[in-house]
Amino acid sequence: MSDKDTNRRRFMQAAGSAAAAVALAGCAGGDGGDSGESTPTETDESGGGSDTEEPDTEETLSVNVTMGQMDSGLDPQDHAETNTEIIVGQAYDGLMDRDKNGGIIASLATEWERVEPGVARFTLRDGVTFHNGDDLTEEDVAYSIRRIVDNDVGISSPQANDLGAVSEVETGDGEVTVRFDGLNPIVFQLFATNGPVVQQSWIEENGSDFINQNVNGTGPFQLTEYDSGNQVSFERNPDYWGEVTEVDEATLGASSESSTRVNRLLAEESDIVTNVPPQEVSRIEGSDVAGVNPVASTRVIFLQMRYDVEPFSSQQFRQAMNYAVDLEGIIENVLNGFGTPTGQPTLEAFTGYNPDVEPYPYDPEEAERLVEESGHAGVEITLQTPIGRYLKDVEIAQAAANQIDSLSNVSCELEQREFSSLVQDITTGNIEDKPHFNLLGWGNGEFDGSQTIIPLLASNGALTILKNDEVDALMEEAQNEADPEAREEILREANALLHDLAPWVFMHQQFSVYGVSNDIEWQPRNDEFIDIDTVTRR
Amino acid sequence: MSLGRFAIKRTLQGIGVVWGVITVVFALRFVTPGSAINAVAPLDADQATREAIAAELGLDQPLYVQYGQYLFDLIQGDLGFSYIRGQAVTPLVLSKIPATVELAVAATVVAIVLSIPLGVLSATRRNQPVDYGATLFSLFGISTPNFWLGIMMILVLAVEFGIFRTSGRGVDIADVFFSVVGPDPFVDTLLGWLSYITLPAIALGTYFTALITRLTRSGMLDELGKPYVRATRAKGLPETLVRYKHALRNTLTPVITVLGLQLGTLIGGAVITEAVFSWPGLGTLVIRSINLRDWPLLQGSLIVIGISFVLVNIAVDMLYAYLDPRVAYE
How many CB atoms lie within 10 A of CB A373? Predict the structure, then answer.
């Protein structure tokens, strides 16, 4: 309560100063430019702060982030989407974490090892406390893992598959040992991305309503105010176990309108805004208050083709579709260059990426030849695309469909569908009910090729559109290979094979484009998480 | 019919309308593609996870069971539980009402303050430049989409000149009232509040302003041509009194009716304006719950909007009959 009052009071002072500055600028005929330029990051409400108040106000670093959507409740284990992860991730830690480039780093566990195949052991950090002051215990960590993977512990978590097939969790001597069904070769990749740790007693004593509106983590920020669907405010956790952040306060809000997000940045009301659309980039770059900071994300965009229906059952036809699409042109013209062409399911810098595989070149003549060879000349196909789910999805699909349609022996139409409607068909258990040809995006926060290939392209994958014995065998082998180098080699082979099989029209690696205020220094991460604690003053 | 019976009759009709809203929203689940499970579970969740989540949320029950349960809870004042946000719907929806009402009232105030004087001026200076100007303004107001107007105002007045805030609701009207007695300076608080509310209020109120201007103008012209006005003039009353005490007063009856009805519309109809300005009201809540297939939250929001609309309508009907004794409660 008092925090809210403090924030409001600080805003009043700022508003007063800003109003006075506007009035003065009006009187003097000046440009008033100084009213907002002094210390815009000082408060999220901006304006020049009062110089008559406590001197430490000058030192306060407040960071305001505007995303596309708000959270779906603050329970860190009861959601499965990025915006909620960004919000709860400010306050909750996992056993391990990732650096800016996706590398694995320590978090609540200081050491980790594979004790034997299918068994991983984590050594917990000493002296970690939750925001309520209680110490972190081994039991809390074990409970957190069980609450995620076991439907009988508290909730049916949508993250149930995120940690692998956990069979047992044991504790003792400051260590937590997790046993899996099978090898789980990427156990540490999984734990570096997933598995936020909660306090058992706090969860058990409070109901869902409370847990979704309050926070008790071990992270660098603690909650000060939660205005559901509107705004979440944090302050620095003074007892944080890690490096103390320079940021005193962080506020996360959302606007579904991309122009509103950009306007907030340019009016110095926000310091970081997400998903800047390509057409807005020049407006930000032309301003003197903010810049654009793009980063290759962990999301790949592709057009998937069902292996069991004509004409997509023909490998030649599928390859023809790849030759027919001018990927470079689409990236340049539709995405203003914010994309990297792909030629395999696994992204560069991920485990299993095959550097010898090149994207398909744009070659409409080769495409026409392959269509002829496939025996499907004159065929009519329809590409389905979601509307507004991925950056410029409709425009990308339109361009691709036009290019395919311009082949002399294929007609291609575009069907736009609302994402929730399309996803209903995609997630159906039966491959027979899935669309024949559709655009889809896939984020892979584990930085391991298997996390794309298994769900999307192995015959037992939840979303698969392909059944190929060779791919299945390779993935089976990879999942049972304990030696990382040998496993990487298997995944590379699978990627080369999938390039040739062409179950997708391989499109691009999507970029996350952020607008960032000139008053702060911040580098975005690949995995779309916004680590506010790494923000510093410029 | 007495006022009491009239009120009871209209309330019963209102309950029927709200029940209709609930039923239609429930029925929409049949025709709207996309399951709520997909908003909760990751895309690659296996069938077992999906079924477990569905069971936990009660989504595995037949629709008529869900419907019956919902009505039963509703009678007890419980609007259900948002499975996306993991929170009770009732407090969530109630917490958004002040923002929406504040914006609707502010837009109405903008409309009244601008439109009535403009309408009167336009009528009394008929076929003069002021009248042409007002007509042009009305045409602009009626034909301009409010989201476009909102975006343009943000670009010019907030981003370029920095006079107003681009979005959000950092200071609310309660803060302004508290500043009269509290430690915050009143003028600064008021300016802070105005910096947030002015643009959305204008964006939302412009259409309405144009409408009322036209209504006031035609009403005034009508009244000014009536015999009783000639009689008051003949009595030697000053023109100001003739216009404002007699003619304007009679013009206002239909204006008030439209104002009231429009206020009801504004509560439910500010969806686009709220989205453009990230205004944290019911409209934003409706959009987000539709996007996430959060049916309990959507139903709760629509029920509250429906109830507001019904209440405002009843109040306007009663006020109308009160203002014009020739109208009976029928």
Answer: 14
Residue owning tokens 């300016």: B191
Q: Which of B183, B166, B73 is nearest to A265 (CA)?
A: B166
Return the structure tokens found at B212: 């009322």
What tokens does A358 get? Answer: 């090149």
Cβ–Cβ of A158/B41 closer than 8 Å? Answer: yes
> Which spans in A267-414 are helix H?
278-285, 315-324, 327-333, 364-374, 393-405
**Closest Cα in chain B, distance from residue A506 (Å):** 20
Q: Per residue in A84-112, is it b (16+ CB within 10 Å) or e — as a string?
A: bbbbbbbbbbbbbbbeeebebebbbbeeb
Q: Which two tokens stand for residue B152?
A: 């343009």
Please give the structure tokens belonging to residue A424: 């209903």
Whether residue B143 contacts residue B297, with contact meaning beta carbons closer than 8 Å, is answered with: no
Helix ranges (DSSP H) in A194-295: 200-205, 208-211, 258-266, 278-285
Q: What dihedral do alpha carbons B259, B262, B267, B270 form, nearest 10°?
A: -120
pLDDT beneath 50, residues of chain B: none
Structure confidence by residue, pLDDT tens digits, A456-479: 999 888 888 889 999 999 999 998
Q: Which residues pair with A417 in a beta bridge?
A: A386
Residues A448 and A350 sit within 8 Å (Cβ to Cβ):
yes
Helix (H) or strand (E) holding A116: strand A109-116
Q: How far apart are CA A404 and CA A402, in angstroms?
A: 5
**Residue A350 and residue A449 in contact, taking contact as beta carbons nearer than 8 Å:** yes
Coil, helix or strand at residue A146: helix
For A158, the closest of B45, B96, B189 (CB atoms) is B45
From chain A, the residues in CB contact with B170 under 8 A are 11, 45
* SS3 track for A430-453: CHHHCCCEEEEEEECCCCECHHHH
Return the residue in B28, B29, B30, B43 with the most chain A beta carbons within 10 A, the one to mutate for interface testing: B43
CB B213, CB B134: distance < 8 Å: yes
Residues 6+ apart with CB under 8 A from B240: none
**CB contact set of A281 (below 8 Å; sequence gap of 6+):** A292, A336, A513
Which residue positions in chain A have pLDDT lower than 50?
Answer: 1-57
DSSP conformation class of A129 = B
Q: Which tokens is B159 given?
A: 């981003």
* Set of chain A residues whose Cβ sits within 8 Å of the Cβ of B179: 12
Provide, as residue numbers in chain A, all residues whose Cβ is less than 8 Å from the Cβ of B55.
Answer: 156
Residue with tokens 């306090």: A199
Q: How far is residue A396 CA from its own chain's centroid?
A: 20
Residue B40 pairs in a beta bridge with none
Nearest CA to A60 out of A87, A37, A39 is that of A39
Cβ of A37: how many Cβ atoms within 10 Å? 15
Cβ-Cβ contacts under 8 Å for A178 (sequence gap 6 or more): A119, A120, A121, A122, A145, A163, A166, A168, A169, A170, A187
pTM above 0.95, yes or no: no
User: Would the CB atoms of A158 and B278 count as touching at under 8 Å?
Assistant: no
Q: Which letter, b or e, does each residue of A500-537 get, where b requires 16 or more Cβ atoms within 10 Å of its Cβ?
A: ebbbbbbbbbbbbbbbbbbbbebebbbbbbbbbbbbee
Q: What is the pLDDT of residues B37-79, one digit of tens each?
A: 777 777 777 777 777 777 777 777 787 888 888 888 888 888 8
- Are A264 and B167 an interchain contact pair (Cβ–Cβ within 8 Å)? yes
Give me the residue label for tokens 């962990």.
Answer: A298
Spell out which residues of chain B touch residue A461, defining contact as CB-CB under 8 Å. 44
